[in-house]
Amino acid sequence: MALYETLAQHYIDDIQAQRLPAGSRLPALRTMAKQHQVSMTTATKTYDYLQQTGWIYAQPQSGYFVANQLESTTFPSLDIKSIEQRDPKRFAPLNGYNPASALFSPLGTSMIAPELQPSIALQRSIKRVTQKAGNHLFQYPETQGDKGLRSALAEHFRHYNLAFTAADFVITNGCIDAVKLAIESVTKEGDTIAISSPCFSGLLDLLSALSRKVIEIPISEQGLDLGHLETLLQQSLIKASLFSTSNMNPTGMTLPIEQKQALAKLATQYKTPMIEDDVYFELSHQKQLTLPAKYWDKEGYVIWCGSFSKTLAAGLRLGWCVPGQYLTPYLNQHALTSFGVNGLIQSCMAEFINTGEYRSHVNKIRTVLNQQIHSYQQFLLEHLPATAKISAPKGGIVLWVQIPSLNAVQLEKEANKQGVDIRSGACFSTHDFYHDCLRINCGWPLENTGDKYSTYQQLISLCNIINDLMKAEA
């Protein structure tokens, strides 16, 4: 065992024995190195190891803290006795799966607070681009996207050992647009697509609008039910599959590497396209990101989609797709629905990536989100009923909560009356299965500013509503 692992075990023992309770501040790196008479390199490796294994988290400008040690939580997994094809339109909640809320609440929409975004650095990139902008900005952009941005993306993802070239990418108006084009490129109205259960509400609304049917594949702590998926493929019951694989919404879980490999293998074996919605790919809380299923796709059956909406700014509406062998139909469909993506925004994003500012921001925001997730977990543990199950994601910006006997749809209505926006479990499935579940966004710092719309006060209100509903049920 390496020295840093031995030292890490010392801290793990103290945490398990509660000599270091959750929230305790650990010594600064230099102090720790002196205390244990080790080098700064060993001290850094020790804390990195403890972060990666979930024992501690870093808070920028504040130090290292002991993480909440939530017991391994098992959430309900959709129990399907037989293969069931469903039309998502028929089972949609009253206002759709992903309704646009008339009120603002930091707990509703999955996004990062604007104050955590690098607005000044982004403004500098925009200013540099506009100062040297040529006539090309006044022309229609290329259908495939600005080559400068495609090249910047290829170089950016090379740092994650993803070997793409500029020619592999297509630039889109956000990730949902990338997924929409993929669906339209490989399926037609009435076709059936396999999705996970639960599934991001925006995808269910999209599939409804495109008149595609779905079959939900159960997902558990072990991952997708790949046996169920392969049965569908063997019987030619689906034309494509659509899955998130990393830090997924709403559960926050990431599929094991073995499952990602298996998904790519199944797509190739049955020559059936798999659309990978990987919008949260870069928001792992671990130091090393897990690779997407696309990494193991050697014949181009995986269509990889992503965007800057979750990592940087939703308002940019800028995404990308690596369509693999479906590049030609994808580009044809893109050309039918738009004349390309805003050229100025593409050039500005290429500049932002090439300066290294984007990578720097992503590395920082991952640390911040890790800290925020732990803060929200601790808050909910203290304020929700003891029966509540709270997810412990290793990435992303949402928490999945189950409270047995809770009517989450009623909770959503009562919360909205009090100006609190959350998403009930009904938003994430065509089945009435997640009726006691809800999703909470953790993208805003948990601060008590005294304002009734602060995240702290919103969470207080939400927990009070939940506790009142549970008392009424009892």
Automatic annotation (TrEMBL):
The keyword Cytoplasm does not apply. InterPro entries: Aminotransferase_I/II_large, HTH_trans_reg/aminotransferase, PyrdxlP-dep_Trfase, PyrdxlP-dep_Trfase_major, PyrdxlP-dep_Trfase_small, Tscrpt_reg_HTH_GntR, WH-like_DNA-bd_sf, WH_DNA-bd_sf. Signal peptide: none annotated. GO terms for molecular function: transaminase activity. CDD domains: AAT_like, WHTH_GntR. The keyword Transferase applies. It comes from the Bacteria. Pfam families: Aminotran_1_2, GntR. Residues 1-69 form the HTH gntR-type domain. Keywords: Aminotransferase, DNA-binding, Pyridoxal phosphate, Transcription, Transcription regulation, Transferase. In the C-terminal section; belongs to the class-I pyridoxal-phosphate-dependent aminotransferase family. This is PLP-dependent aminotransferase family protein. It comes from Marinomonas foliarum.
